[in-house]
Amino acid sequence: ATTKVASRNVYRGVERSGAAWQAGLDGALYGWRGRLWYSNPFNFDEPGELRSSLGYVWALTKTVTVEASGTHFWYIDEYAKGAASHSFESALQLNWDISGGLRFGLETSYDIRLRSLGIEASTSYDIALKKWGAFLECRLYAGNLAGKDVLPDTTSETTRDAYTYWGADVRLPYRVGAHTTIVAEAHLVETNGQAQAWSPLLQGSGTRGWLSLGASFDF
């Protein structure tokens, strides 16, 4: 379980809300993985978001895994005209643990409501902080998202758009108890060619940075 305060809610470079309280519940059983995640903006005029996902992981080798998953997005109090109140996305992700904490990921996804096809590549590396007994988790990623119906609930003509994005994440988890970890995060992302229709705040292309601080609890 996780809980945190984030200065922004951003997904694939798209700004979905300003500062928000976010919480998640993750579970795993054999190869199955499930997650429930919620974001509640402090500005009540901005929309909240609830995601539920279920996936299965296959271990192809000791270092390569493939995960197939489905995620339902529910956009609470969505107020951008014509924006979807909910959508469903299927995804297939390849993960490769190369060596020494270096990892590579490749994901492709398709949303049936936005009729959007996405692809994202990422690389991650953990830097040991031996003095603190922790690891600094670093990630770089880039992707492209193309949608044939970005505003599926509008009665006007279909809105198409495609954009690219790239970003970097830095995450510092520090265990403070047998089941409790404090987590600080910093994020930076930039989008190019992104129409305002992707964002419930009607925010277009740009560079966005945000911070978060929270805790995770494992059982």
Describe this protein's structure.
By secondary structure, this protein is mainly β. 0% of the residues lie in helices and 68% in strands. It is built from no helices and 14 strands. It has strands spanning 2-6, 9-11, 14-17, 20-29, 32-41, 48-59, 64-76, 86-99, 102-111, 116-129, 134-147, 161-175, 180-192, 206-217. A twelve-stranded antiparallel beta barrel has the order 1-4-5-6-7-8-9-10-11-12-13-14. A two-stranded antiparallel sheet has the order 2-3. Strand 2 and strand 3 (14-17) form a beta hairpin. The radius of gyration is 18 Å and the shape is globular. It starts with a strand and ends with a strand. The model has no long low-confidence stretch (mean pLDDT 92).
Q: Outline, from the CA principal axes?
A: globular
* Helix-residue proportion: under 10%
Q: Per DSSP, what share of the residues sits in E-state strands of 2 or more residues?
A: over 45%
- Helix segment count? 0
Average the pLDDT over all residues and give the rounded result: 92
SSE series = EEEEEEEEEEEEEE
- Low-confidence segments, given as residue ranges, are none
Instruction: Give the class from helix and strand content and strand pairing.
Output: mainly beta
Strand order across the largest sheet: 1-4-5-6-7-8-9-10-11-12-13-14
Which value, in Å, is the CA radius of gyration?
A: 18 Å
Total strand count, please?
A: 14
Taking the sheet with the most strands, its summary is:
12 strands, antiparallel, barrel
Write the layout of secondary structure elements.
Elements: E1 2-6, E2 9-11, E3 14-17, E4 20-29, E5 32-41, E6 48-59, E7 64-76, E8 86-99, E9 102-111, E10 116-129, E11 134-147, E12 161-175, E13 180-192, E14 206-217
